[in-house]
Amino acid sequence: MQLIRAAALAGLAFLVHTALPIDARAQANVALAIAEWETLRPAGEEFEILMPKNSIAEVTKEPYHKMTLTTRLYLSDHPSGAVFAVTSMSGIKANPALYTQGERVNSYVDAFRRWFPVRLRGKEAVGKISLVGTKQLNGHAGRNYNFVIGDLSGSLEVFATRKRFYAVVFLTKKKDVVTKERFLSSFMLPDKQNEPPTVAAETAEKPIQAEAPAAAEAQKRETPAPGSEGTTDAPESKPGEPKPNEPAAAAGQGRRPISGGVLNSKAISFPQPIYPPEARAARASGPVNVQITIDEYGGVLAARAVSGHPLLQAAAVNAALQARFSPTFLMGEAVKVTGVLVYTFVAP
Fold first, then answer.
1. pTM across the whole model
2. CA torsion, points 86, 87, 93, 99, in degrees to nearest 10?
3. Does domain 22-185 have CATH number 2.60.220?
4. Longest dimension (CA), the chain
5. pLDDT (tens digit, 9 = 90+) per residue, 219-272?
6. What are the sequence ranges of the domains in the chain?
7. Angle 22-33/177-185 helices, nearest 10 degrees?
């Protein structure tokens, strides 16, 4: 009997010993499947990253509201099921006289969220992002998101420089922390330098006259779009002259946002927040009110929670930033709108 018991215990110990590192061995197998890596330093870009060999690169022009964004994609859709990607976007130049850096990044994130899932998995694909937190990379402000496209899930990290917006994506069908960290941590940008003020910033206090529609269209045809390839600073202009390609922004400078009250019913896209695990564990519930500002194109420029359970506020704000509205016009002119979105969380 003692011999049988000893043999049983020995067998159990062996099973426990071999079962414990299964996840680690599975991740190692994925890493081995991607044995050949290379350092990617594309010409004309500011970044470098460790990428599986034989990645593809493509450049496209993508419409976003009244702008055209130059989009460069560096992609490895690996046979192992993992997706490695870096997207570089330009077309929304840094201009503190017209909008904050946060508003600029919000617009880029929205443009990327609409474009990338369709490029990766077809026109019916939808991407869902949830903000995890903020981060810095050599002085450049960034954000970290959870990212889901269909049966793929993983991480999205974004950074904005003066010239470019960068989105770094790792997606897979099975959790793989080792490969994800190896890829994301290899993304590098040069140290941020102190930048001289733009022409627009130097003349910010001077009145800007709106162009007549016909003149504006003529300027658009003759002048490269702000932030397009080869342009990093504001276009030269004489004091008092309207700035090309910015008629809508210039026209809206002197008009305050109008109040829209509760805006839930006015949204044309109203993503629901993801219930945070810590809130679920605490059985947190109830309404969260989020104050938002909508730009002239219907995108959410800014959002902040003004009431509700603290564990639910970040999820509500992240959902609010992804909401979309039809533009609001006042006397024929597109205007910004402020209001409140209400999200009601029900404890499971």
1. 0.56
2. -90
3. no
4. 99
5. 444 444 444 444 434 344 444 444 444 443 444 445 788 888 899 999 999 999
6. 22-185, 258-345
7. 50
